[in-house]
Amino acid sequence: MSRIGKKPVAIPSGVTVSLNGADLTVKGPKGEMAMSFVPEVTVTQDDSGIVVKPINDTKRARSMWGMQRTMVSNLVEGVTDGFSKRLEISGVGYRAQMKGSSLNLQLGYSHDIDFPIPEGIKIETPDQTTVVISGIDKQQVGETAAKIREFRKPEPYKGKGIKYAGEYIFRKEGKKK
């Protein structure tokens, strides 16, 4: 039994949900998102919220049960509050700034990196060493943050690079003389 899948997804006020067979559309104050369900689960809407249940007791149906419920929960949370990731840049001369519709990164390479901002994502740079990525799609926000981090991952000796806020970098001791 899926502990996550058993819980119904509560629908907050200001959010409208329309369910057409295997397609779900959620509209809220931040925007609108839609998804399709796998055929191994059934979805119903009642007073407590949206309920996801497996059709049968196969391994795939049970594994899809909790995942599909979490995806519905992410849709509802995305259109009400949205998601955000915060990146921190550390290193001498490393900085980020917005230039029009792209993010300009100076990361110690011989050239600047211009990262085009994907549709549906909002990027802010409160200061030169902080990048805040926000949007309504959790997967797209995380993927964009991972792509930006990939340009210069934090190295273990001095910790220079781009890291997630709150991420622990395992530090190594340098060479001894």
TrEMBL record:
Q: Name one Pfam family in it.
A: Ribosomal_L6
Q: Provide the Large ribosomal subunit protein uL6 alpha-beta domain boundaries.
A: 11-82, 91-164
UniProt cross-references to InterPro entries, sorted A to Z: Ribosomal_uL6-like, Ribosomal_uL6-like_a/b-dom_sf, Ribosomal_uL6_a/b-dom, Ribosomal_uL6_bac-type, Ribosomal_uL6_CS
Q: Which UniProt keywords apply?
A: Ribonucleoprotein, Ribosomal protein, RNA-binding, rRNA-binding
GO CC list: ribosome
Lineage: superkingdom: Bacteria
- Subunit structure of this entry? Part of the 50S ribosomal subunit.
Q: Member of which family? A: Belongs to the universal ribosomal protein uL6 family.
- Role noted for this protein: This protein binds to the 23S rRNA, and is important in its secondary structure. It is located near the subunit interface in the base of the L7/L12 stalk, and near the tRNA binding site of the peptidyltransferase center.
Entry protein name: Large ribosomal subunit protein uL6
Q: Which classification does the entry list for the species?
A: Bacteria, Pseudomonadati, Pseudomonadota, Alphaproteobacteria, Kordiimonadales
